[in-house]
Give the backbone structure.
Amino acid sequence: MRLKLQLRITLYFTGLVFITCLLFSIAMFSVIHTIEDKLFRNYVENFSIWAINLIEYSPAGSFQNWPAGIKIYTDKTLNKPTFLKDMPPGFWEVELPERDFFVLVKAHAQSMYFITFDQTDFETREIRILFSLMLSVLTLTLLAYWTARRISASAIAPVIALANDVKNDQLISVENNFYADDEVGFLALAFAEKLTEQQEFLNRERLFTGDISHELRTPLMVMQSAVDVMSLARDRLNDQELAALARLQRALNDSAEMVAAFLQLSRAMDGFSAEQANCEINKMVEQCLDEQLRNSARPNVKIEYIQLAVLQVQANPALVAVVINNLIKNAFAYTLEGAISVVVDKQSLRITSSGDALPADISAHIFERFVKATDSSGAGIGLSIVKRICEYHHWLVTYQCHVGGHEFTITWPSDSSH
């Protein structure tokens, strides 16, 4: 899961401070340890020269009380510590369970001298320094996290405000920029310009749809009148002319239905609520199936209508009819053999039909305008209208394409179906 911008800024800043402080602490501890080790070795070397000369030129036993923590042994000393046995010349560090020693083994005048320095307190101080440095790193890291939270919250506040304005359609106009004159302000202006262009385009499209739908009603009424007049003389028409008249009547009905749907959508988008009624999906599906069976002979297709429940939807009847008719007509139009199955349950309508699988580039955009199969004779706008109507009513329409069949499903929300 991608982290929020503020948290990412906070973590980046905190991580940078932590790594910087950690590297600085390691470097500081290393420098301190190196300098102290070098100074201590120089001190031990100088002390050994002075102590060995003092021992050789002084009466035996005159100097037995050395500074605290320092003891000197020779190869002739009988009770020297066991860890000094067979130790070659040089500087050595010895760690025992309870004490730590720094040992200088030095040969002088045919004698071997063992000078031990108890550095337990020194090691304890080093551990305390290391602990203090780590505690400082932790403290600075926590302080950096708190500071980063405060700074990042203030820094991205304009971005959050811009996101909320875009989400709530309250974006500033191009002429009235309330944001700062910086990158966020430029982004706000770019959003405002783009959204203004889109809104103007949508308004033009809505007005055009409403106007053209209204204008189409007059020629449709004229054609319907002509068909009605021709129907009065049905007894004088032959079978071929009667079939043509029936096709013309179906085309007029489809066109009138489509125009009515466009007008309803246009009015709804202009703020007028579409006429609502209690629509019984089962009955509307049955009527559409009967009409298709009368008009489209499919002897090689098995038609199956399964009603698992009575589904009633509160919506505009004309728009519901457009959705159902489009999907069922598509199933009949492109299924020449196989089966068509229509299933109604308590919350959805599922239409399954036999047929070859569509290419992936077509099935992925099946609800877009002018997208259609290569063998389709339609314009490719029927399913896009279905999608627009479903989106307007907050219905869910899905399509699944698999080997041997197609499946369209409309799911109504629980508050609109019963």
